[in-house]
Every structure is written in structure tokens, then in C-alpha cells.
Amino acid sequence: MRDARTDGPDEPGIETEQPRRLNADFPKYSIAVASDISGVPQQQLRRLEESGLVSPSRTEGKTRRYSDNDLAHIADIAGLSDEGINAPGIRYILQLRRDMETLRAEVAELRKRLERTEHDNSKRRIR
């Protein structure tokens, strides 16, 4: 499986940054830019990292870099914080959301398997 963040095009020896920049997980924003985009002050971004709610990537020089997904995550956290929810509550809500997504994926997979089984069984009845 190819990874758009690290893999270049199919031709060896040719490198391109375009797929990396388009990847929502690619860390590309400094803390100042992330703060401007998200509307969350830089100090609060640092506190979110200290509390373990956000984990930006780091450059070799230890500079924080935020991805588009990090910014979306920060927006979720900021919205919950604006509703008066504290850091442990936010962490719990985010975990519940992740669990819910996992369960949705499992249910979708089980539905597909059930449909395949029903389809296979209907074929057997026809014979």
C-alpha cells in the first residue's frame, strides 16, 4: 500500500511534494499559522498538547507542525471547551466518538458479510 505522505510518484527517482501537501495528515502548519486558522491562541495550543489532547508532529528542530486533521481536531476540542467541558470530559467525549466510529465500521462490515451470506444461500437454494 502506498503512503502519499512519504511515497513519490510511480517513477523511481522522481519526487513530488504535491501528494504530501494534499494529504490531510501531512504536518504543514506552524503553531502561529495553526493559531490563526483555528482561532485558538498559541498558548492554548501548547496547553492542549501538554494535556495530551493534541499531538502535533515535530520537525528535526523540534518545531511543532499541525496537519489539516490536527486543525479539525482542535476545532472539535475548542467547541467542546466553549460549551464548558473540561479537559478530562473532552478526552472522554473524543474517546466515545472514536469508539462509535469503530463500532459503525464493524457494523458495516457485519452487514456486508450478512449480505454475502444471504446471497450465497439464495444461490444454493436455486440450484
SSE layout and pairing:
Elements: H1 18-22, H2 31-38, H3 42-50, E1 57-58, E2 64-65, H4 68-82, H5 87-126
Antiparallel strand pairs: 1-2
What does this protein structure show overall?
This protein is mainly alpha-helical and 127 residues long. It has two domains: 1-84, Orthogonal Bundle (Multidrug-efflux Transporter Regulator, Chain: A, Domain 2), CATH 1.10.1660.10; 86-127. The protein contains five helices and two strands. It has helices at residues 18-22, 31-38, 42-50, 68-82, 87-126; strands spanning 57-58, 64-65. It has a two-stranded antiparallel ribbon with strand order 1-2. A hairpin with a 5-residue loop joins strand 1 (57-58) and strand 2 (64-65). The longest helix has 40 residues, at 87-126. It starts with 17 loop residues before the first helix and ends with a helix. Mean pLDDT is 86; it is low at 1-15.
CATH class identity of the largest domain: Mainly Alpha
Largest sheet: 2 strands, antiparallel
**End-to-end Cα distance:** 40 Å
Report the sheet-strand fraction: under 5%
Structural class: mainly alpha
What is the second-level CATH architecture of the largest domain?
Answer: Orthogonal Bundle
**Strand/helix succession:** HHHEEHH
| Beta strands, count | 2
Low-confidence stretches: 1-15
With strands numbered from the N-terminus, the spatial order across the biggest sheet is: 1-2
Shape: elongated
Tally of separate domains: 2
Q: Which fold name corresponds to the CATH topology of the largest domain?
A: Multidrug-efflux Transporter Regulator, Chain: A, Domain 2
- Name the average pLDDT: 86
Rg value? 21 Å
Helix content: 55-70%
Task: Please count the helical segments.
Answer: 5
